[in-house]
Amino acid sequence: MTDRTTGQAGDNADRDQLDGLRPGEIAVDLPDHFDAALYYIGRIRTPWKRRDDCPKNPRESDAVCTVELDPRWVEGLAGLETVSHVVLLYWMDQARRDLVLQSPRHYAERRGTFALRSPARPNPIAVSVAKLLGVDGNVLTVVGLDCLDGTPLLDIKPYFASTDSVPDAAVGWHASRER
Amino acid sequence: MTDRTTGQAGDNADRDQLDGLRPGEIAVDLPDHFDAALYYIGRIRTPWKRRDDCPKNPRESDAVCTVELDPRWVEGLAGLETVSHVVLLYWMDQARRDLVLQSPRHYAERRGTFALRSPARPNPIAVSVAKLLGVDGNVLTVVGLDCLDGTPLLDIKPYFASTDSVPDAAVGWHASRER
Q: Strand, coil or helix: what is B134?
């Protein structure tokens, strides 16, 4: 593991800037091989063309977005029209994968990657719950996304309140931040 | 796209049996290339060694399971101990990826892959919400999983009720089945 906040300070300060690390962020060496592979099965269309334009989280916007499924898979949508909400998995292809401690722009403290929903993670797969407005051929119309226009789609799942909804779940570090 | 339920009936009946398709299930030709790649970042330890032993869904069992994170990533857990529930992503490495219409064992009707939570899907990534009991070094103790022992781990995320919980979400085909 490479701790880029230790070692020869001058060199590392230079390297961190080159690498785009913020102060205190730590990156590790990535594994030397991949273990499995993904197909992009479609694209997500949103109003946001630059990362700075994207809402901070999916409930911040009620913009209507569309999910364009590759026609190869269209029969897989049968029955989805009866569902009120979908879980969308998509690939945040612009995120770095080696950060373990990070300082997101809008938080003061650094935290572990797995305590954050940041795009930067070993496998940059986002999970978003969206309200399904309709299905027309291979296109879904949804509300509740925050990703860039053109983001690669990985999966569509029905949202089951019985297993997916935990209204009283708490994120301690975030709650104390809001107090 | 190959519709394996049409064409020369005898041949296809034979081929379907060889392929393990149930009556009415349809498989498509997979894309000729992959688009992105995954790291396994750990393993999930559960009491279930065979698919037939697994609970039908994560709320059917209160077995305590463990999530063993590769030590490479352990600093990424900082702050996670303040979280009540986690979203776990894992790779269902034994599932076929080419089904678009399928007939799960416990449902009478066939449905589209994207209307089901079946492991068989183009990218067999499972999303499960689990109650976090504790974090000790690189090991999480959780309740609320239904997967096989040894399942490869892809990601750990904090569960935010504000964006992830939709208590009144409905899955129409499933509701009408229960009536």
A: strand
Q: Please enumerate in sequence order all residues whose Cβ is within 8 A of that of B40, keeping only pairs 6 or more positions apart, or say none.
A: A35, A36, B70, B91, B152, B153, B154
Q: Indicate the pTM of the whole model.
A: 0.88
ipTM score of the complex?
Answer: 0.88
Distance CA B48, CA B124 (A): 19
Quote the tokens at residue A24.
């205190």
Nearest in space to A28 (alpha carbons), one of B89, B74, B88, B157: B74
Q: How many CA atoms lie within 13 Å of B159's alpha carbon, on the beta-carbon side?
A: 24
| Cβ-based neighbours of A82, under 8 Å, separated by 6 or more | B115, B171, B172, B173, B176
The predicted model gives B140-156 an average pLDDT of 95
State whether A111 and B168 contact (CB < 8 Å): no
In the chain, the amino acid numbered A130 is A
Q: Within 13 Å of residue B83, how many CA atoms lie on the same side as its CB?
A: 28
The tokens for B56 are: 């039908």
A106 token code pair:
């809008």
Query: What would the two tokens of residue B143 be?
Result: 């309740």
Reported as a pLDDT band with limits 50, 70 and 90, residue B177 is low
Residue B167 has φ and ψ, to the nearest 5°, of -60, -30
Of B80, B82, B46, the C-alpha closest to B63 is B46
Q: Does A35 touch chain B (CB under 8 A)?
A: yes
Task: Give CA–CA dist B41/B73, Å, rounded.
Answer: 8
Residues 6+ apart with CB under 8 A from B88: B44, B67, B126, B127, B128, B129, B130, B142, B145, B153, B155, B156, B157
Q: Are A150 and A43 in contact (CB under 8 A)?
A: yes
Contact yes or no for B166 and A159 at CB 8 A = yes
The distance of B11 to chain A (nearest Cα, Å) reads 23
Identity of the residue in A75, A99, A125 whose CB atom sits nearest the CB atom of B154: A125
CB contact under 8 A, A28 and B93: no
Q: What is the pLDDT of residues B68-110, one digit of tens each?
A: 999 999 999 999 999 999 999 999 988 999 999 998 776 678 9
